[in-house]
Design a protein that fits this description.
The two termini are about 35 Å apart. The chain folds into two domains: about 150 residues, Aspartate Aminotransferase, domain 1; about 230 residues, Aspartate Aminotransferase, domain 2 (3-Layer(aba) Sandwich). The protein is built from 14 helices and 15 strands. About 40% of the residues lie in helices and about 15% in strands. The longest helix has 20 residues. The protein is of the alpha/beta class. It binds pyridoxal-5'-phosphate.
C-alpha cells in the first residue's frame, strides 16, 4: 500500500477529529521518522513532547520488552514490583513527597482537580459543593468534559455542554486578576507555566512568583500543569523553576514514558494526596507494571543523557538561528529550551506543509505559530541541517 491508500482507509473508516499532515509514518528512530515511501524526516514536534527522549530509545525499549515478558497488568487490586520504583524515582528526581499515577495527561488533570476539591472541603473547610478552581484564559488541560469546561477555546467547547461548574477564568499573565478572583471558596489555581497549545506563551516575568505568593497568602493550592512543559522541554526539569517557586501540585505526562506508553502522574505532598482514601479514585491501568517500568527507564534516560541541560543549551542555539530569520512574515521567535514558537503574520499551515516537503515535521498551533519542539537528543548538526531547510521554506513563501 502507498501513502494515499492508507489515507483513504483512514478517512473512510476513522473519525475525523484530527487534520494530520499527509505523511504516513512507518518507523522512527531518535529524531528521524521514515514514511511508508521510505522518505526520511526530522521530527520537530516529538509527539507534542511525549518523545523527548527520541523515538524508540533503546534503553526504554529494553525496559518495555523485558517488562512485557514478565507482567503487564495487575490492576491496583494487587501490588506490583515496578510501581514502588517509579514512586521512588519521581520522589528523588523532583523532591515531591508522593505521587499518584494515571495514564493520559487529562486523567492526571482530573486527579489534581479532585484532590484540590477534596482538600478544599476536608482541610480548608470550604462548604460542600462550592469549591472553586481558578483557571487561565487560553489554557490547554486536555479534552474531557471537565477539562473543556474550563477551556476558553470555542471549538473545544462547542456542542459539548453542559459543562462542569466551579472553574472561574482569569486572564493568563495577570496576577491582579488572580488576586481579584480568589475568595473564601477558592481551593486552587490551575495554570501552565508556559502555554504550549496557545502558541508557546511565556507569561510576564514574576507572574508565577506572584501567583505562588497569592496562593500561599490565601491558603489556595497552586497546581502547575507541566504535562508538555515538564521533564526538560523548557530547558529546566520543570518550567516553574524559572521563577523559583514550589507549586503544591505538579501534573506530568507525555515524556514521562518516552512515547512508549501513556503514563501520567500528580506529584504533591503527603498532606494533599492524603485526602484520597481507598476507593476514592482510581484507574484500571494507572500504575500498571509495564507503564511503571517504562517510566522508570524514561526518567533514567532523561538524567543519564542530561537532556534537561541539552534542551537549555541547544534550545538557545536553535532559537538564535531562528531569530536571525525574522523578516517579512516571521514576526517573532519565542520559547524556552527546545520549545520554540515562530510567529507569522499569516497562516502557518502552508509553511508546515512546505517544511514537510523539505523533510521537517512540525505542526502549526493556533493558526499562525509554527512550533519547533524536536526530541531533546537532537544534535547541533541536525539543528544546522534543519535551519537550512527552514530558511529555504521561509524564503520560498515570501
Ligand atoms: C497534552 C496536554 C494535556 C493532555 O494530555 P493527554 O495525554 O492528551 O490527555 C494536558 N495539559 C497539557 C499542558 C498538555 O500539553
Amino acid at each position: 500500500m502507498k501513502t494515499h491508500d492508507y489515507i483513504s482507509l483512514e478517512e473512510r473508516y476513522g473519525a475525523h477529529n484530527y487534520r494530520p499532515l499527509d505523511i504516513v509514518v512507518r518507523r522512527a528512530k531518535g529524531v528521524w521518522v521514515t514514511d511508508v515511501e521510505g522518505k526520511k524526516y526530522l521530527d520537530c514536534l516529538a509527539a507534542y513532547s511525549a518523545v523527548n527522549q527520541g523515538h524508540c530509545h533503546p534503553a526504554i525499549l529494553k525496559a518495555f520488552v523485558d517488562q512485557a515478558k514478565r507482567v503487564t497488568l495487575t490492576s491496583r487490586a494487587f501490588r506490583n514490583d515496578q510501581l514502588p520504583q517509579l514512586y521512588k524515582i519521581l520522589h528523588d528526581l523532583t523532591g515531591y513527597e508522593m505521587s499518584l499515577p494515571m495514564n493520559t495527561g487529562v486523567e492526571a488533570v482530573e486527579t489534581a482537580v479532585k484532590a484540590a476539591r477534596k482538600w478544599g472541603y476536608t482541610v480548608k473547610g470550604i462548604p460542600e459543593n462550592s469549591a472553586e478552581i481558578i483557571c487561565a484564559t487560553d489554557n490547554f488541560h486536555g479534552r474531557t468534559t471537565t477539562a473543556v469546561s474550563f477551556s476558553t477555546e470555542a471549538q473545544y467547547r462547542s456542542g459539548f455542554g453542559p459543562f462542569t461548574p466551579g472553574f472561574p477564568i482569569v486572564q493568563y499573565g495577570d496576577a491582579g486578576a488572580l488576586k481579584r478572583a480568589i475568595n473564601a471558596n477558592t481551593a486552587a489555581f490551575l495554570v501552565e507555566p508556559i502555554q504550549g497549545e496557545a502558541g508557546i506563551i511565556i507569561p510576564p516575568e514574576g507572574y508565577l512568583r506572584e501567583a505562588a505568593r497569592l496562593c500561599k497568602e490565601n491558603n489556595v493550592l497552586l497546581i502547575v500543569d507541566e504535562i508538555q512543559s515538564g521533564l526538560g522541554r523548557s530547558g529546566k526539569l520543570f518550567a516553574y523553576e524559572y521563577e523559583n517557586i514550589r507549586p503544591d501540585m505538579v501534573i506530568i505526562g507525555k515524556a514521562l514514558a518516552g512515547g512508549f506508553y501513556p503514563v501520567s502522574a500528580v506529584l504533591s505532598s503527603k498532606e494533599i494526596l492524603g485526602v484520597f482514601t481507598p476507593g476514592d479514585h482510581g484507574s484500571t491501568f494507572g500504575g500498571n507494571p509495564l507503564g511503571a517500568a517504562v517510566a522508570c527507564a524514561a526518567l533514567k534516560v532523561l538524567v543519564k543523557e542530561k537532556l534537561v541541560e541539552r534542551s537549555f543549551t541547544l534550545g538557545n542555539y536553535f532559537k538564535a538561528k531562528l531569530c536571525a530569520m525574522k523578516g517579512a512574515h516571521v514576526k517573532e521567535v519565542r520559547g524556552r529550551g527546545l520549545w520554540i514558537g515562530v510567529v507569522l503574520d499569516r497562516e502557518a499551515r502552508p509553511y508546515c506543509e512546505s517544511l514537510m516537503e523539505e523533510g521537517i515535521l512540525c505542526k502549526e498551533t493556533h493558526d499562525t505559530v509554527i512550533r519547533f519542539a524536536p526530541p531533546l537528543i537532537i544534535t547541533k548538526k541536525e539543528i544546522d541541517w534543519a535551519c537550512g531547510r527552514v530558511k529555504k521554506v521561509f524564503h520560498s513563501l515570501n
